[in-house]
Amino acid sequence: MNFSFVSGDATRASGELLVIPLFEGELADTAPTSLATADSALEGRLRGAATQEGFKAKTDQAFLMHTHGRAGAERVLLLGLGNRARFHPEVLRLAAGRAAKTAQRLKVGSAAFVLPATDAAANAVRAVVEGLGLGVYRFDKYKSAAREEKNPAKLDKVALVLPDGVEKSRELEDALALAKRVADATNWARDLVNEPPNVVTPTALAEAARQAAKEGGLQVTIGGRRDIEKLNMGMFLGVTAGSIEEPRLIHVVYTPKNARDAKRPPLALVGKAITFDSGGLSLKPTEGMVEMKTDMAGSAAVLGAMKVIAALKPPFPVHAFIGACENMPSGTAYKPGDILTSRLGKTVEITNTDAEGRLVLGDILTWACEHRPSAVIDLATLTGACVIALGNYIVGAFGEHDATVNEVLQSARTAGEEMWRLPVSELQKDALRSEVADMKNSGERWGGSINAALFLKEFVGETPWVHLDIAGPSNSPKERGYLSKGGTGAGLRTLVEWVRLRAATPDDYEATTPPTPRAAATKAAAKGAKSARKAAKGA
Ligand code: BES
Ligand code: MN
Ligand code: ZN
CA dist 58 to 63, 75, 131, 169, 255, Å? Predict the structure, then answer.
């Protein structure tokens, strides 16, 4: 999509569709200039008709009208932004997404979009450009009718009409460039999620990562089963055992050019990448299984974020760590009752092969923490329990390092992604106690999301860690704002905002060089041995 900034009379801006977002009350009295000029060009019929049709600029409202040659555009679309006092750029992002869908439905190729006068014009630009870019997304490549369509709908030219008193600036140009990148990367991630599991195999996912890294000038290393064996990732090997698809170990690295910046501790991003989760021998029921091609959404968001980070060029390294495989039942599959030995050395009794995500993530988190990151975050479609708790639009955020969790929650708020903190409470600890191994991989149903987080926690040692359970929001059950049914790219924008937040004050995160989980485990074991010796001596 091509964007340009224009100033002045919105009715003269070129575009087949003129979009004017409005706050409640603006139709009746305090009309912005754009609405007033459009209305007078239409001899008062715009406000008249919109009022008559009950348009009050509420957040779910829109009003479309023909101009019959009385304005530059053939049609005007009024968009509701709701109450001005409750405004957040996300409201505008969702509205722009709806406008994009209307434009696609009308087969409009060009539009003029009036930027509402809000506190920060750059944030409005981000919201509108992201909303439009995400809103035009469709996944119909396997529909013969869509493939054969002669002139498919394509909104590809948008003039952004600046509010009165706002000039085009470097800041706005930067916001536009970033928003375009974010929308493109998110749509790229949505494609990976929406592609069927016979296309996005672990190997295909690794190739997508390689391609993305190459385009962004990032370093990429891809390993196979041999490499996973060499790293003693016994839990990862257990999960992949039932599949004939080769597992893939993916490591993407952004390193700043500046030598001093390159020496800062990296930020580590980890994404769940089960390209199909059948449940394994603890097979899922049919209804639950069809959606399980989306069980790699965490890694899609992480890789999409890396594409944006490559352009953002923060003053510290950023690493992405991904373990990709399928979870399948077969004669070679791991079994309930098996005991696996993790990279960290802890042993795990398998009580449910459908609790596979935490197994792969546990080994990958250990590996990520060995790179001594200042913090590690994982994005995972981890538990159905999180969907029960928070629904399809809210991400569950876990972690015990308050400062880091708060950074992520703040970034989510800026990004317009809804997240809610859930506890990593030791009260649930008994759920994972095993009679025969250090722990088991699944416990009671109650508090299922907390149990999963408690399991992951065992593998990060003292590294500040945040776990995002995106099982609900990774996939939208319906069309909504800029979302369409299917993959959403959930978490990607939060990761980008988090990197931007840290990039503003990179020195604040330098001091943290926590011990790696293995060092911490060794220390704990030594301490245990010492107290055992002491106890023996005392006896
Ligand atoms: N990938 C699923 C979680 C999931 C469920 C994601 C629904 C998206 C929508 C995960 O691997 C899983 O199967 N979790 C189990 C864990 C249980 C066996 C302890 C679950 O949530 O039922
Ligand atoms: Mn599962
Ligand atoms: Zn899964």
Answer: 11, 20, 18, 31, 46
If one counts every other C-beta atom within 10 angstroms of the C-beta of residue 481, the result is 22
Q: Are residues 357 and 506 in the same domain?
A: yes
8 A C-beta contact, residue 193 and residue 300: yes
Strands (E), 317-358: 318-327, 339-341, 347-349
Q: Same structural domain for residues 137 and 207?
A: no
Are residue 111 and residue 257 in the same domain, yes or no? no
Q: Which residues of 108-149 form beta strands (DSSP E)?
A: 110-114
CATH of the domain at 114: 3.40.220.10
Ligand 1 centroid to 462 CA: how many Å?
27
Q: How far apart are CA 474 and CA 103, in angstroms?
A: 25
Angle (nearest 5°) at CA 157 between 153 and 163: 130
Confirm or reject: Cβ of 473 under 6 Å from ligand 1. Answer: no
The whole domain housing 18 covers 2-141+154-163
Average pLDDT in the chain: 94
Question: What's residue 514's pLDDT?
Answer: 59
SS3 of residue 233 by DSSP: coil
Residues 274 and 376 grouped into a single domain: yes
Amino acid 539: pLDDT:
41
Measured CA angle at 478 (ends 476, 481), to 5 deg: 85
Q: For ligand 1, is residue 384 a contact (CB within 6 Å)?
A: yes
Ligand 1: which of 383, 394, 455 to mutate, most ligand atoms within 8 Å of CB? Answer: 383
Rg of the Cα trace of the chain? 25
Any atom of ligand 1 within 6 Å of the Cβ of 133: no
SS3 (DSSP) at 318: strand
pLDDT of residue 73: 94
Which among 382, 390, 394, 432 is the best mutation to test ligand 1's pocket, defined by most ligand atoms within 8 Å of the CB? 382
Q: Whose CA is nearest to atom 8 of ligand 1?
A: 471
Kindly list the distances between the CA atom of residue 69 and the CA atoms of 111, 276, 287, in Å, as whole numbers in the listed order.
15, 53, 52
**Chain length of the chain:** 539
pLDDT-flagged residues of the chain (< 70): 510-516, 518-539
The total number of structural domains that make up the chain: 2
Catalytic residue flag (residue 358): yes
Cα-based torsion angle of the residue sequence 306, 309, 310, 315 in order, rounded to the nearest 10 degrees = -130
Instruction: State how far the Cα of 312 lies from the Cα of 174, in Å rounded to an integer.
Output: 10
Residue 318, beta-bridge partner list: 254, 267
